Amino acid sequence: MALVDRSGSGWNSNPPKAEKLRWGELDEDDGEDLDFLLPPRQVIGPEENGIKKVIEYKFDEDGNKVKITTTTRVRKLAKARLSKRAVERRSWAKFGDAVHEDVGSRLTMVSTEEILLERPRAPGTKAEETKIAGDSLAQLGKGGAVLMVCRTCGKKGDHWTSRCPYKDLAAQTEVFVDKPPASETTVATSGTGKAAYVPPGMRPGAERVGSDMRRRNEENSVRVTNLSEDTREPDLHELFRTFGHRGFGFVNFVNKEDAERAINKLNGYGYDNLILRVEWATPRTN
Amino acid sequence: MRPILMKGHERPLTFLKYNRDGDLLFSCAKDHTPTVWFADNGERLGTYRGHNGAVWTCDVSRDSMRLITGSADQTVKLWNVETGAQLYSFNFDSPARSVDFSVGDKLAVITTDPFMELTSAIHVKRIARDPSQQTAESVLVIKGPQGRINRAIWGPLNRTIISAGEDAIVRIWDSETGKLLKESDKETGHKKTVTSLSKAADGSHFVTGSLDKSAKLWDSRTLTLIKTYLTERPVNAVTMSPLLDHVVLGGGQDASHVTTTDHRAGKFEAKFYDKILQEEIGGVKGHFGPINALAFNPDGKSFSSGGEDGYVRLHHFDPDYFNVKI
Q1: What is the ipTM of this complex?
Q2: Mean pLDDT of the region A178-206
Q3: What is the rounded CA–CA span in Å between residue B107 and residue B100?
Q4: What is the mean pLDDT of residues B35-47?
Q5: What is the mean pLDDT of residues A105-124?
Q6: Interface of chain A against chain B, CB under 8 Å?
Q7: Domain spans of chain B, in order of start
Q8: Fewer CB within 10 Å, N side or C side of chain B?
Q9: 0.80 cut: is pTM over it?
Q10: CA angle B52, B26, B91 (to 5 degrees)
Q11: Cα–Cα distance between B317 and B326 in angstroms, integer?
Q12: What are the helix (H) ranges across A154-284?
């Protein structure tokens, strides 16, 4: 039978409460008393990338020791010049609900998005996008027998969602990016194919009926929609460059096969936080 | 810029106020607990516990020692900014809607809502330097405006009190006698409830925001209408930059836009206008709900917005903001 020496002065170098506590006996207050059993909190300061790690130890509800590693990127946002009084206030103790704040609390976070002071745009002017002649809404009526819709890449008539060759893009489609591209909310939506809300049932589909009646190089035209506002022509040049020779201006391909490859590869491609829609574009009939 | 998001409030924000030195930001919300944050990195410093109703307004003394808050629980409380301790509580018979310290922090103007048979009123209370000497007696009580008085502030040199509210009329009162000195003209003034009022840094002019989708700039002495800024949404909050000639408006959702086009989130924006040219410079998006509170840091290099979504967004401007031109 062991004698537990509580005086702290005896042979036992362990701290007084060395016997194992049953978790049922632990309550909120006890948790704090046991803090000295935990290794001290470590802060591995910001290194060149600004990555800072804070390693804390806690007891969870079952009395197990838990190690919590919080990794943050420290980034300088602004310079603050504080007056003498302000510097004093910086060292004030926390009070009210902030008393028990720990590193893990996510009350204050830096936005993951870059927010700009967006200049107002005259209605009708939009950032550049490759749009061939072809009113997208007018063509929707010619959708024809479009039965198979893939939710991942948005292509119709090709495969079901479960058979999507771009399955890995599913993660991207899940992310709801509140990106603020382009137009004023008051601008009329028709025919622009970008930044306007087009109900899913009406979104441009893939193959067009009667495209074989069109001229060949126009048939090779590819419309890219759902581009972010920041996309400029050079960006599009670079994006489509790998797929073959293209004509000037919009994304007209010399070879039909190249256009097809561009469509297959880039439709549903995540570019600048948006999923591109790349499909055949049919010029106006007149 | 990368705004700092502060989610300390469970309910919509109602008011934001920076202290004079610009290092602390006080936020009030409908969740009963005003909060103070460090204005550089958004870190929470503390909360003031004691109110039993939505906190509509607050003001901080120039030395950042005293905080005064007005709440729907019919009290206005004085707090020690550093410790969070409640120093005094003024009791009223109706919710308090607006508070403002005078220059010198010796007086405070408080507005109370109409409640049951009571009409709305403007109260002036003396604030003692020593909280133990504080009394509840009013120096002055002004009654008269119909409807709620959403904001009342001290005019230049504490000689006047400027008020505006649900009846859309901006009024200037003499702060010693309580007499009505000036009223805004019905034709040129606001057409709907004035929701917000913000003084310039030097107090010579102020801007009012209204549900009639406009904001107006007025002279503090003569109540002359100087400028009007038009927007598409009802305006809930206004503020002015102390550094550049910019007016910022924050607002709510226009009902007709509810079902159309935009399915994006985070589209409620704070709109920047050129103060003199009355033209829109740009907008800062991000809030998920209407913006209810705006405040500019006295150094003019950052501003914060509080929304119906419970978030406070603290923005430090990029260097190119200071070069922006129409």
Answers
A1: 0.82
A2: 45
A3: 8
A4: 92
A5: 79
A6: 75, 77-78, 80-83, 85-86, 89-90, 92, 94-99, 101, 106-111, 113-120, 176, 178-180, 185-186, 189, 196-197
A7: 231-326
A8: C
A9: no
A10: 35
A11: 17
A12: 170-174, 216-219, 233-241, 256-266
